[in-house]
User: Fold 4-hydroxy-tetrahydrodipicolinate synthase from Aegilops tauschii subsp. strangulata.
Amino acid sequence: MRSTEVKNRTSTDGIKSLRLITAVKTPYLPDGRFDLEAYDSLINTQINGGAEGVIVGGTTGEGHLMSWDEHIMLIGHTVNCFGANIKVIGNTGSNSTREAVHATEQGFAVGMHAALHVNPYYGKTSTEGLISHFKEVLPMGPTIIYNVPSRTSQDIPPPVIEALSCYSNMAGVKECVGHERVKCYTDKGITIWSGNDDECHDSRWKYGATGVISVASNLVPGLMHSLMFEGENAALNEKLLPLMKWLFCEPNPIGLNTALAQLGVVRPVFRLPYTPLPLEKRVEFVRIVEAIGRENFVGQKEAQVLDDDDFVLISRY
Amino acid sequence: MRSTEVKNRTSTDGIKSLRLITAVKTPYLPDGRFDLEAYDSLINTQINGGAEGVIVGGTTGEGHLMSWDEHIMLIGHTVNCFGANIKVIGNTGSNSTREAVHATEQGFAVGMHAALHVNPYYGKTSTEGLISHFKEVLPMGPTIIYNVPSRTSQDIPPPVIEALSCYSNMAGVKECVGHERVKCYTDKGITIWSGNDDECHDSRWKYGATGVISVASNLVPGLMHSLMFEGENAALNEKLLPLMKWLFCEPNPIGLNTALAQLGVVRPVFRLPYTPLPLEKRVEFVRIVEAIGRENFVGQKEAQVLDDDDFVLISRY
Amino acid sequence: MRSTEVKNRTSTDGIKSLRLITAVKTPYLPDGRFDLEAYDSLINTQINGGAEGVIVGGTTGEGHLMSWDEHIMLIGHTVNCFGANIKVIGNTGSNSTREAVHATEQGFAVGMHAALHVNPYYGKTSTEGLISHFKEVLPMGPTIIYNVPSRTSQDIPPPVIEALSCYSNMAGVKECVGHERVKCYTDKGITIWSGNDDECHDSRWKYGATGVISVASNLVPGLMHSLMFEGENAALNEKLLPLMKWLFCEPNPIGLNTALAQLGVVRPVFRLPYTPLPLEKRVEFVRIVEAIGRENFVGQKEAQVLDDDDFVLISRY
Amino acid sequence: MRSTEVKNRTSTDGIKSLRLITAVKTPYLPDGRFDLEAYDSLINTQINGGAEGVIVGGTTGEGHLMSWDEHIMLIGHTVNCFGANIKVIGNTGSNSTREAVHATEQGFAVGMHAALHVNPYYGKTSTEGLISHFKEVLPMGPTIIYNVPSRTSQDIPPPVIEALSCYSNMAGVKECVGHERVKCYTDKGITIWSGNDDECHDSRWKYGATGVISVASNLVPGLMHSLMFEGENAALNEKLLPLMKWLFCEPNPIGLNTALAQLGVVRPVFRLPYTPLPLEKRVEFVRIVEAIGRENFVGQKEAQVLDDDDFVLISRY
Assistant:
């Protein structure tokens, strides 16, 4: 079904060169639909802050809480409005091969520059099944494989990645397993993005990673840009670690959603099963903002604590 | 949910000025999925032939045989690849207000320039219901209302159109009811596109219509451009009438689908309930092409008759 | 995909014998979801009133305003709760062959006793396309074909029906075209249900129709039962005509929806594009109830006029 | 939206008493659609073999590879054909609260007796989010909570279960974490089903579990029935352990799918990302069948090894 119109194509090499990719938050209206005005503002902030790519509907962007038509629409929207200024990487992965195939086909048809593919979480499969799954989608366009065993319950072992490396569309791996794994890949010339904000500085400067696919860059894009572009900087890394630790005190994107609402750049609306961090954590966030400097964070408003009642939790949307 | 990114916005006036809009055919692969390569080629041919807009997934494009995710994907694809060169008008109408609202919201989110909205066919409704239906979608962006009682079983009467004319997004009407109705509207300054190829010359030059939303322009875009742009031309109109008559000998797009397959620009694949025209009609088409001149038709190959066995009919896709 | 479990199967002859089939209303909660408690009560009333079958999600039941998953769920629910006491006929027809095939397969899988299939409205097709469309679904189970040109814009001509009569699953036709057409079929031994309440008495007793697929029986099931079972009764027919005329003063089910709300058996909730009848018509309905006798209507409460403000109109659900 | 028709209701106590529940396999046709004839035969075999309940579309039944409409249809079909003879427990859980709410509402509407709810896998959430998620669905009907950290990457800790135990619909927990956890719950009177075939004998007879939700019972229902009903039987348990070990040598249901195809009761069709076990494992299975006795397994045909070419792998369906 692939289109040959080249207008929106990016070479796999074009993807391999990206150092700062943000797994962008999806903001909601009070009825649970997408808040596209807030979304557009987040993307513009990312572009201005130096992010070179965005993951649309990643786990951070709550792709698993979207219907596929919402998801593809958001990819198409992002390409249409921002595709000239930032690489749009659609998380069209799924634990169902059928869904991954369908979504990836549609995502490339609406112009996404690359696909992010996770291994089949929850259902899991054999090594042969893993390879078969990825082989169904790799021919469609530039692809980043995503390894996050702490979510999928199943590590993608290096032999699988190596078996897929012959595909010209294989851009690299978003790897969450740690420095040793990163080094094992980069030694072989495989492009790696760190999937852990707290490890990305060392992965980048000590273990050969190309860059990061970041959650924290939703909040402090400029600082994350510095961390990836301006050479080793242990002081900056140290300064950011309390933020990163706070961000992941509960499963992501709970922290991020809470933080962006506190910064006044998204409405405090949560799609269940996510709920905001509790009051003491919100107080802590305001202190972290102060410590790092409000000017380094997205948005213009003062960071607020917000009351429990300020949050809207949605189960039907 | 509306985005404020202005990049893809077109003013309602920008829509009102279009004279030649093609209700473009959707071509299929043998398994029934979209054939995007053939589609892209059709759109490029339209742009080169002088069409200023396309209806994506109209009745001609078989929007009623698409799932909504296919439909929105095709709109997004068209905007992404061709939106700078042609106006993309998504047929996001439905006889279900819910579906029309959802699809229109998504269509504008992926960048379509205008929506085409039909009245609720089959289910039908009261005059009050008609107005309520259209009022749900008109605030979303530039809109063309489509009146085709021979499909919907219900005429949209002029008072409804007049009641909607106060909306700044109301671009005009694709009207199929005839010259008198066209004149009634154009006398009042309402923009009209003829929805009947065989009437469009007179509608344009004698009754004040702005242009046509055409099926025939899928086949002879240059001649339809002449018909709409180069002044009264009864001879050209006369020359085209046998083609137009042939095209509508069975419900559209049966004739068009058959013709484009015979011209070698789409695969001879039909989604049921459409089936190709019979052999004698296919023979007749080749003669019509000869009479009008092959060079005026899209595609480069010789027009072929095709055998019954050449056609693939699909019910599951 | 057909199951061979015979538990819920009904022979085609079992369908052919039904005289009173109600095209049952789908009631809604204030948020637009189905009101299953009210629905169950409506079905029980139909069973007690003598209806032998129900059409689930017909045009009266607003199948065209349902998502397919809602539609199949409602069929499955009806079979599960009431299938032992009333025949459940799912309106799994569509103008898209794909959708008709998918829905019919699912409907029979959840136990519906027969399918109702309309010809492709709005999109329309050729005679050959009509036959191809129906042939895709007829092998799946007992089938009633529905001919309503005032909605579909295309008559199903007798040769099509005759071509389909060889299928053992072909139960008969819900015919709306009038007495002459009815007689033409019944003379040939084809089972016919009148699709027009105001003609059903004469169709049944003078032109050989087996019975009626009725809207009015939602309101007065016992009287409609008499009309179909107890021999010619011009007086009763005459008595009911003002109600039938009122019911269809606007496209069905606008009148029915308004009436059932006035009778207190459903919430006054409308899915757009349907809106309630205006005040003067609602006053008229109360008078019609008085004339025919409240005891002949469904529900126990006094018929009320209801204010405009009592009605809830929904576009997102 | 809940129906009050009581015909298909089962009390929570009715669910709590079940000792042998089979997480039934979903068989496919060569095009990937459900093979309902084979499915019906599997269910009949379960009923005859003594299973008291089935999980429809569990992880074993590959609910994660179904569209929701397929899933609800299969629940409705099972209730309709077999609901009088076996309890039908729909796996209407999801990592998206919206999907869980929608599917559970639909599942109960088509008559399922209970819902199985997993915690949000992959996306994960906070403890507060977990509780909020389950509270959205618990009011809908009898519910079994499913804890399988090896798939979800997140343990449901006892305090969450205890917080939910106040709901009258809370039937119990399918627990995979081990004997100690099982005992912790059964000591408090919470109903537990073992989610691990190889532990279920001891869980049942030594740690107070009520029974098992079994994969192995797809193959040897009678022996699993003995294991749960006929008192401690270390010899039988020992005899079955090689089968259980074989079944889970790759992520379930890879082994089960392979085994049922080898036994000739389902077609050798796999929806990706599942692929069959390799030849040496298939040879091993035949030996295991011989050791346990062919007569104890489902089906009548001789157990076959099958060639690689016999298997059909499907990615679009």
In short: The domain at 12-231 of chain A is CATH 3.20.20.70 (TIM Barrel). DSSP finds 13 helices and ten strands in chain A. Strands of chain A lie at 20-23, 53-56, 87-90, 114-118, 143-147, 170-175, 192-194, 211-214, 269-271, 312-314. Chain A touches chain B at residues 1-5, 7-8, 29, 33-37, 39-40, 68-69, 72-74, 76-77, 79-83, 106, 109-111 (CB under 8 Å).
